[in-house]
Task: inverse folding
């Protein structure tokens, strides 16, 4: 899903990526339903840092209108 919003002042021609991780109670009784736990948040951050740092996602391609609208995927 792609959300369109106003661009960042410091990076007007780049979109952004965000990740969420969820550990389902169906996978293990140790996981609880509801808000993501500390481990899920850390996993999402790790994936986000890895992809952002590798340059695997072209954030400039997420720019909808240069300097005005960008996408969040």
Result:
């Amino acid at each position: 899903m792609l959300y369109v919003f106003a661009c960042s002042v410091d990076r007007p021609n780049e979109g952004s990526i965000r990740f969420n991780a969820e550990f389902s109670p169906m996978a293990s009784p140790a996981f609880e339903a509801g808000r993501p736990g500390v481990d899920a948040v850390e996993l999402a951050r790790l994936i986000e840092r890895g992809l952002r740092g590798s340059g695997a996602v072209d954030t400039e391609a997420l720019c909808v209108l240069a300097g005005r609208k960008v996408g969040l995927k």
Notes: The chain has a mean pLDDT of 82. Helices lie at 38-54.
